[in-house]
């Protein structure tokens, strides 16, 4: 990858490569756009096949955060970190402390939280070195692990998508295929089970599958069988790029609504599912519950206020479908338009010179 070409093409601000030999930390912090405020986005720990793949993932995820935070109405820009390594075997306390110091060195341009492969305990270690971290334990006045709130937001967004596709937002009797039953999806399955939906699940982790089978009477299928299930709704809740040339012809679902980031391999895949009449709840909108929740910490966490805002994902998804129909564009384009128009409006309204700028980190809600 030609890094500067790629950064210029997608208008990235900054890429920070962090290395600490003692702890084995190899982290990449990508900051996409800070027009709206400091970049907020989680830290993913994953076993990447190559350094290039890790950099590409950090960059793609950071851009997604710019759009997510903008569409959610947050005064925050977009960034993300990936740490190269196996979260089950390669973690140690010093790694996260060293990482915390790299974040501190950015002086508030980037704020982190959990993502795939990182936990509340990891955030607590980062918090020993910097205040620019959210999703730390409740004892620090924080909101804790964002996954359950992300799941609540996905559930609300799925209801809105069901209304668009089936004329009712009731999920009773609907069959939902859930790909990946990790932190977010397990709680999502709880909501769906309670709402009377039938679940088909898959995961590369057999224990995670068994847990969902035992708790919700879910039907388990192999990982490559999940796309072709005869279901009403497909909920991708594992990793990205799963809506692609190979999977689209297999899909029978009328709705795609799940937590995974970067679900469309390429924009053309969003066009294709639109042409097929599949109702797609744009990933970064439906999965914005976690970031809305942790962002609330920046003004002193209030769970009631945060959850009310997360429930608003239903309305945002409805609004996106309305723009999609009005302008005859796929829903992912409608979501991008919503985010880009907000960033442009805020940039214009904040363009005049000020001697001492007020920081979003010191603003009260
Ligand atoms: N945790 C959060 O609050 C948020 C998470 N997300 C996104 O939601 C997705 C899930 O996040 P978490 O639940 O936190 O992660 P997680 O790591 O707890 O769960 C992901 C699950 O997917 C499984 N998986 C991985 N590859 C798979 C494959 N090829 N087929 C089937 N299963 C596979 C894993 O074994 C794991 O159980 C990720 O894309 C994440 O970026 C987005 C917004 C917020
Ligand atoms: C705080 C996290 C849940 C934010 C993030 O990284 C995401 O939404 O993907």
Automatic annotation (TrEMBL):
PROSITE patterns noted in UniProt: GLFV_DEHYDROGENASE (PS00074)
Keywords annotated in UniProt: NAD, Oxidoreductase
Superkingdom of source: Bacteria
Glutamate/phenylalanine/leucine/valine/L-tryptophan dehydrogenase C-terminal domain residues: 144-351
EC number: 1.4.1.-
Class of enzymatic activity (EC top level): oxidoreductase
GO molecular function: oxidoreductase activity
Xref: SUPFAM superfamilies: Aminoacid dehydrogenase-like, N-terminal domain, NAD(P)-binding Rossmann-fold domains
Entry annotated with the keyword Transit peptide: no
Family recorded in the similarity comment: Belongs to the Glu/Leu/Phe/Val dehydrogenases family.
Record protein name field: Glu/Leu/Phe/Val dehydrogenase
Native organism: Sporosarcina saromensis
